[in-house]
Amino acid sequence: MSPAPSGQFGPPKPAPNWLGWLAFLFFIFVQVYSVLTSPADAMMGHLQKNMYVHVPAAWVTFGAFGVVLVASLYFLWKDDERADLLAASAAEVGSLFCGLTLVLGMLWGRPTWGVWWSWDARLTSTLVLFLIFVGYLSLRSFVEDPHRRGQWSAAVGILGAINVPIVWMSVQWWRTLHQIQSSPRGLAPEYLRGLMLNLAAFTLLTIWFIWRRYEAARYERAAEHAAQAAALGGYNG
Amino acid sequence: MTTKKTKWGALAAVGVLVIAFGWLIYGGLDSNVVYFLTPKELLAKGAEGYDKPMRLGGQVKPGSVVWDEQKLDLRFAVTDGTGEIKVHSKGAPPQMFKDGQGVVVEGRYGHDGVFKSTSVMVKHSNEYKAPAKGERPSDMYKSLMKSPAT
Amino acid sequence: MASGIAGGGVGYVVASYVITWVVLGAMLVRTVGSVRRARAEYDQAAKGEFRT
After folding, report:
1. Can you tell me the ipTM of this complex?
2. Measured between beta carbons, which residues in chain C are less than 8 angstroms from residue A212?
3. Residue C28, domain extent
């Protein structure tokens, strides 16, 4: 028997509509712009344009899992259920982008390396990251009690997020097929501009996605609270 | 009271899991899972290096590529500057395969001193630049894949 | 020789953009739908609460 979790809460503050419009319009603009303005790369031709989706997707994956880490720690510390809901939303969005990163990477690896996949440290650790968060999401649907669910998923969320720096550094620490991180120095300015714009666009989209998913989760919980209150016979402040 | 207990319990569980997980997955990786050996390292293994499935990584030694388009037979040497190992492979290499390119080959090192490769992978650098003026990328790829005889 | 990069890898690039856009579009639809549904559910529950 766990006592009632953190205080009940009402409906969330909705994400502003303009943010969604801005995120998507900016994204569309940036994608079209970067594809049209970047010349074919000397070594790999138009394949270079894969960079404008694969790299930002990986980047926002790391960012989203960073949100999971912070929110999970906050939940364990303050026992505030809203932090748990935020972590869950970020985990969901992060997993989506992580899966996308893997698929986009394969679409680049096949023509460049000659193989869709290889078990090097970068690819393997990214797959591990993805699987942990898929596990995180299914764990949430298995545990009924919100308080328990929060604690278990916070544990898995933190565990998963610890992988992020490992994935990031894997290309430095071990010999890999995957090249090391591209640095502005190794990138011609016309590519760097496209990459930076896409990073910004993906980040904006991710913020909006997490916010809206969090909003939905808040409404769901608020509805449950309201239903409970109704069942207990009225609302008494 | 219960909340406090479960909270610390959860934190302890996280700690244990993190350490166990980190040790399991990554602790041994450095010593056990070396993605590829360089020619120098493979040669240093001596008799132990033969006939084991492994990956060999290095650069395609310039001028060493012999490609028979009819038989789909590819021979080249992989070098790391010090050591050098001959590689024999069947089938067409990836498009970006060329002299001086970083490659990773999978296969076995035979007693005849030739690495029998089942798969040739091209390692891409992290640099990107547009082709020089008057040079179309498609032309470059064609020239990369010309047989070495020409 | 083998095809692929000879054409600049256009097929692979197109595939990566198509997949990205489809995935993000699907996520947009799902996200907006989930907010709308949860909101309606909440409004319903809140009404029931005050009726008693």
Report:
1. 0.87
2. 31-32, 34-35
3. 14-51
